[in-house]
């Protein structure tokens, strides 16, 4: 049996590189010659730890691997592993196959690691070289292949390029041809364009191209082509449009003109014509070579507009100086225009007008009788609702913090061309003074008629006394005089009672006492005087048995008035026809005469106070109150009154009463 030492000595000569570590700290227990050679170390390292013995392997994986083998008890084998060792003072990298094999005791505890290794650097280098060579070959092959296909590509490209070149050549040829054509095309285009075109070239603005339309506008012929602008068209010198043309040439910036005036020669005279035009610079290779002028003549439009503006100005002048207020409203009755007089009458400026509403609570609207005028009854609302005009509607207006004014309004709808209602127009005058005068007149009449009544009553009493005395002892002459005086006095007292009536009526002070009676009886009774006079025939027709309910005294007054008027205004016609017509709802009485009749424009006024149709000739006496009073009476009964008349055809005055 060989001693342990001897065994190790033998082992150390083995050509195999062997090392044995006998602690987890990797103390070198044994190392063979071959291993020492690999490590490049002396035998004196035996007993040292591996880290102390081969310090350069710090940082390489081996120490850790050995410790793991020690701890895990599992053999670790590796091939072709690179290790860097210091051999004779030089760090050298080599390749190794190696194995770390744990040696265990009976309990399986690791007591040592057997490390065997073999330098395989030669093999590794050989393999490397082979691999490199192979690699290079593969690369070469790949390159070769690439070059092949590149070459093929290049060939294809070349033929394509050739083809392109050919195509390009052809295109260039064609383009050249087209260029020539296009210049002629452009010229033709300019020639035939429906708008006027001029092409100038050079700083002198030489007329290069000019079409028919332009020649017509300018009043020139083809001869101006080739001439500088100011030579061909000397009359336009100084026109702003010409300055603009030179500006476009100088700056290269396009300019447009709108309704520009240009003096144009037409025959012997130079007229101002108007044009819309656009100047565009012609640029060749970055240089401005000319200007193109495209123009449209707008003289007619400009003149028409100027005329319209002139008309508008004139209209504005009229509106501004009018004695009547004019207000235009939209369909909602909002003012959109108010002339100066309207502003003056209402005492507000235009801005306040535009914001004004007819139902503004700060403004009170009244009827002339002092009752409130509801918005729906305001003339402008009536016109907007009915689409029909209204004339001479008098209303009172109380502006905020100001005195009441009276205005007389005419109102008419405004209708568009398609017949659509677009608003209304109000014209009005301030009639406050007229109203005041009327009031004064009423007051005067009221006082005067009251004052007259007393002496007239006294006079009447005296005359009656005188009449009675005459019966006994008076002469024929004095009897006639008394009779005459009585007639005059009766007339006078009729007049006074009319005046008193009108005052009572205008103040709404007359009660009605209704009773039921036969209308024919009333008519017969009240027309006794006509029968008596014998100048006219009174013909009564219709429902003579009809009964009506009304104030008989007031109705008497109405009928007497109509019949008296017929006598008065139709003296030459003999027949006066009174016709009674009763239906389920109303009784109608009509008084017709064969007199001169009444023109329509006057007929609408004859029921007004103090109105007399024939004011010019004062040959009919009267106050113009009879029909006014009649109308008030009929109205108070809830009926209607009116006249149907045609000049020369007589008149029919009628009234209705509800039954
Ligand atoms: P007066 O008779 O006092 O003038 P009225 O009120 O009775 O007042 O009549 C007003 C106007 O109407 C008259 O002035 C007259 O011009 C016109 N008129 C009235 N009745 C007739 C008639 N039958 N024919 C023509 N005109 C008439």
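Q: What amino acid sequence fits the structure above?
A:
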């Amino acid at each position: 049996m060989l001693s342990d030492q001897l065994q190790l000595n033998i082992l150390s000569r083995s050509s195999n590189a062997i090392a044995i570590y006998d602690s987890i700290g990797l103390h070198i227990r044994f190392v063979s010659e071959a291993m020492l050679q690999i490590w490049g170390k002396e035998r004196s390292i035996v007993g040292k730890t591996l880290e102390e013995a081969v310090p350069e392997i710090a940082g390489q994986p081996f120490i850790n691997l050995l410790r793991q083998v020690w701890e895990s008890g599992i053999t670790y084998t590796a091939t072709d592993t690179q290790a860097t060792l210091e051999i004779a003072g030089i760090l050298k990298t080599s390749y190794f196959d190696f194995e770390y094999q744990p040696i265990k005791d009976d309990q399986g505890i690791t007591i040592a690691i057997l490390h065997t290794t073999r330098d395989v650097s030669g093999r590794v280098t050989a393999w490397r070289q082979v691999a490199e060579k192979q690699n290079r070959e593969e690369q070469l092959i790949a390159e070769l292949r690439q070059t092949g296909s590149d070459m093929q590509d290049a060939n294809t490209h070349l033929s394509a390029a050739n083809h392109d070149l050919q195509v390009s050549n052809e295109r260039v040829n064609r383009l050249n041809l087209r260029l020539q054509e296009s210049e002629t095309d452009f010229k033709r285009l300019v020639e035939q364009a429906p708008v006027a075109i001029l092409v100038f070239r050079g700083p002198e603005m030489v007329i290069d191209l000019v079409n028919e339309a332009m020649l017509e506008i300018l009043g020139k012929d083809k001869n101006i082509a080739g001439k500088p602008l100011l030579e061909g068209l000397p009359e336009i010198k100084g026109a702003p449009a010409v300055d603009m043309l030179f500006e476009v040439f100088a700056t290269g910036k396009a300019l447009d003109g709108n309704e520009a005036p240009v003096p144009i020669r037409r025959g012997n005279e130079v007229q101002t014509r108007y044009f819309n035009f656009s100047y565009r610079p012609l640029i060749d290779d970055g240089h401005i070579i000319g200007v193109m002028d495209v123009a449209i003549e707008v003289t007619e439009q400009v003149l028409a507009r100027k005329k319209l503006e002139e008309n508008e100005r004139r209209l504005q002048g009229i509106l501004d100086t009018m004695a009547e207020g004019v207000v235009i409203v939209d369909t909602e009755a909002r003012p959109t225009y108010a002339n100066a007089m309207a502003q003056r009458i209402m005492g507000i400026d235009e801005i306040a007008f535009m914001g004004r509403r007819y139902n503004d609570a700060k403004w009170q609207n009244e009827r002339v009788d002092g009752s409130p005028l509801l918005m729906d009854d305001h003339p402008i609302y009536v016109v907007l609702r009915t689409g029909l005009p209204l004339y001479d509607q008098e209303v009172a207006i109380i502006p905020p913090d100001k005195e009441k004014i009276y205005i007389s309004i005419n109102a008419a709808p405004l209708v568009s061309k398609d017949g659509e209602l677009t608003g209304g127009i109000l014209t009005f005058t301030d009639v406050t003074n007229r109203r005041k005068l009327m009031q004064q007149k009423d007051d005067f009449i009221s006082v005067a008629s009251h004052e007259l009544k007393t002496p007239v009553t006294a006079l009447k009493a005296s005359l009656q006394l005188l009449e009675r005395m005459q019966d006994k002892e008076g002469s024929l002459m004095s009897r006639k005089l008394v009779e005459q005086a009585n007639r005059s006095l009766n007339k006078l007292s009729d007049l006074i009672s009319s005046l008193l009536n009108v005052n009572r009526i205008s103040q709404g002070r007359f009660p009605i006492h209704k009773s039921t009676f036969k209308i024919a009886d009333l008519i017969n009774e009240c027309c006794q005087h006509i029968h008596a006079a014998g100048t006219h025939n009174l013909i009564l027709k219709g429902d003579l048995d009809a009964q009506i309910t009304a104030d008989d005294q007031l109705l008497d007054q109405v009928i007497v008035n109509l019949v008296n008027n017929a006598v008065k205004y139709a003296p030459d016609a003999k027949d006066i026809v009174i016709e009674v017509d009763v239906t389920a709802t109303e009784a109608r009485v009509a008084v017709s005469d064969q007199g001169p009749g009444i023109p329509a424009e006057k007929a609408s006024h004859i029921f007004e106070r103090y109105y007399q149709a024939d004011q010019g000739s004062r040959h009919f006496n009267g106050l113009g109150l009879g029909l006014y009073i009649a109308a008030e009476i009929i109205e108070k009964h809830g009926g209607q009154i009116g006249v149907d008349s045609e000049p020369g055809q007589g008149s029919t005055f009628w009234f209705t009463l509800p039954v």
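Q: And what stands out in the fold?
A: Residues 121-192 form the longest helix (72 residues).
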